[in-house]
Specification:
The structure is a homodimer. The N and C termini of chain A lie far apart (about 55 Å). A 3-stranded antiparallel sheet of chain A has the order 1-3-2. A 3-stranded mixed sheet of chain A has the order 5-4-6. In chain A, a hairpin with a 5-residue loop joins strand 2 and strand 3. Chain A contains 5 helices and 6 strands; from the N terminus they run αβααββββαβα. By secondary structure, chain A is of the alpha+beta class. Chain A is globular. At the A-B interface, helix 4 and strand 6 of A face helix 4 and strand 6 of B. Bound molecules: manganese (II) ion (2 copies) and zinc ion (ZN) (2 copies). The site of one manganese (II) ion has 7 residues of chain B, from helix 4 and strand 6. Chain B binds a DNA duplex (30 and 30 nucleotides) through helix 3.
Chain lengths: ~140, ~140
DNA sequence: CGTGAACTGGTAACGGTTTTCATCTGCAGC
DNA sequence: GCTGCAGATGAAAACCGTTACCAGTTCACG
């Protein structure tokens, strides 16, 4: 009742591999990226299967997906299953989950003001995290 | 000095066609959509050229581009060249330009709070506009 | 064990976008 | 008005992330 998982019926080596790798990652990662790392570390999973599990996780609500400006899909395991947004470092990709009451209220108000209903919204904040701005300059 | 146009060096029939069609459109439109309408109305432009002009306009800052969830790029001529966001109807695509002081403040604050600098953000609000929710039901 | 539904993964297809390159054209300079 | 040519065009091919297809594999259950 509590977990509205639309997950797979069986637990497989591949499914566990994808899910746990994403869980161990700190930021958004692409399917191909995950696939490459799995292959590199020995326990390989087909690219198709990586996509399948990521899609299941997104459907289940435990993973967020977003599109980069050049059309690539990025996935991230979210600690909080409730509605929230991300503050992402443009350098290292690390993401912090943030909730924004102010934004929720604003979105609702601006929509109502223009006669819109069934409002939904997407908010992404990108910047350079403290660690990266203190770290080595992007020389080469 | 005022216009920081990174536009093309020459004025061509094709460039004018793309720009004015987008100008006459009320919401976000895809490159293929624009290409199809130009072809339909007789004054045809190569798809490649449509993409090229849209890219120039985006670079010049007079046009906004966003990605749909399935990776398609959508373009819109913005009336306001200053920073703003859009309230888009998920049914008819009509977009209203809105500025959100509350969101700007929130984004800055939440970033500062987590030690992030050089903050940027994207905010999109989608809903059903008054006209569409009053109009014909999405039957067939 | 035996059966079948779920799962896997190589390969092919898909679709939007970009690159390539031969051809064309706006326009600055005569 | 011409001419020259850098800039622009567009059909076709390449690109690339993603999805569909489908034959083979795995696993829960009787
Ligand atoms: Mn929100
Ligand atoms: Mn803003
Ligand atoms: Zn960082
Ligand atoms: Zn509408």
């Amino acid at each position: 009742m509590t977990t509205a998982r639309a997950g797979r019926a069986r637990s497989t080596r591949q499914g566990v591999a994808v899910e746990s790798l994403l869980e161990a990652s700190s930021g958004f990662r692409s399917a191909q990226d995950l696939h490459a790392e799995l292959r590199r570390r020995g326990d390989a999973v087909g690219l198709t299967t990586v996509y399948r599990h990521l899609q299941s996780l997104v459907d289940g609500g435990s993973v967020d997906m977003l599109r980069t400006v050049d059309g690539e899909a990025l996935y991230r395991q979210c600690a909080d299953s409730r509605h929230h947004h991300h503050l992402v470092c443009r350098r290292c990709g690390t993401a912090v989950e943030v909730s924004g009451q102010a934004v929720e209220r604003w979105a609702g108000a601006v929509a109502r003001e223009h006669g819109f209903t069934d409002v939904d919204h997407t908010v992404e904040v990108v910047g350079t995290c403290g660690e990266c701005s203190a770290g080595p300059a992007p020389s080469s």
